Amino acid sequence: MKTVRVANGQAFWGDSPSAPVAQVRGGDIEYLTLDYLAEITMSVLRKQYERDATAGYAKDFVGLMSEIMRECIERNIKVVANAGGINPEACARALLEVAEEQGIRGLRVGVITGDDIMGQLDDLLGGGVSLQNMETGEQFDTVRDRIASANAYLGAEPIARALAEGANVVITGRCTDPGLVLGPLMHEFGWQWDDWDLLSAGTIAGHIIECGAQASGGNFQGGWEKMPDLAHVGYPIIEARANGTFIVTKHSGTGGAVTTATVTEQLLYEIGDPTAYLSPDVTADFTSIRLREVGEDRVEVSGAQGSSPTDSLKVSMAYPDGFRGSGMITWAWPDAIAKAELADSILRTRLDELGLSFRQIRTDLVGYNSVHGRLTPPASDPSEVVLRVSVWADDDRTVRRFAAEIAPLVMGPPGFTGLLAGGRIQPSRVMAYWPALIPKSAVHPQVTIRERA
After folding, report:
1. Is the pTM of this model over 0.90?
2. Number of domains the chain contains
3. The pLDDT of residue 422 is above 60
């Protein structure tokens, strides 16, 4: 039975730059998937695009491809990445320039567009689509005039279409994470778009490997201290078959481990209702599958069931919502916590006396209460503690005035050991997230092939 090996080499923008290279050079694979986008990433890319119309994509991807492009083409390893961000065409042009510079021929880039619906918002509203915040219920008119980006989550179909048209690199903008894997499987096996069990299997396979080394022991809560050689952790690979069963594995000789426990932990990541994992392609039932270890670092997944998807697509929108700033100072023993708390009290008193208006001000003592709060008292007076104060305000001038009040704290309370903020705090624009639903019929993905023959 035909087997297709799909490897994931990137869980997020900023993940290990060596992981994709190791996936290509560590053994036989047919596909390399790379996931760069998160909700906050789209906001960052939108700000870059506003400053430079040739930007707006994950430029790290181009640097990576300059290293592995020739190998991928020569070995017929196809690359599928959502590195296009809000400017997939510019990303494709950058890849073609790399091919030109390196004298590489045979590059065929499938560019997927259509997820950007900024120009359709008014028509959607006029057609009765509310675009209300699907998490809070807030009405869209409270943010309409500030929306800076709006991208629908596309499914696997345009990826499969690009591969069918001969692309050996597929660049998408906003799409579902599992779609990066489901698209290649749909293309390779010719699955029908209404065979819900097979689409569910492909979606679950994509979900298991979308977060990189999380599925292979890199972020394992059930025995992290015994996980071998995490410095060289192997990223996960799917060995898929046409009947919908697949094996989760990794390249031999790499660190970490693939077990039923590591795979189960990743299965539970960000899924909501496990019986109804929603995607544009299928509603997958994560409770239907069975896991079985069939060898070292080999877990078989079978029995996937699914049902028809909803008639909606999720849209991720971003809008500017004030400015933020954060400053950190370290105080040393003795009485490090008491000194930091006094410094925070001094700072807040001075800010109040200045009449500054903040939407939010937050204090953390890093190493003591910044994650879970004060769950337990410290066993003893710690050797040091970091005071971190963060503010959110409507304007940048307020944040700058806050920044001016942080620095004087180095003169007292005593025990100051250094500013950790790298100098004077600079205000940063806050890009807020607005999720909504729109009809699928409103989005029409396009596939364009760019090539250097």
Report:
1. yes
2. 2
3. no
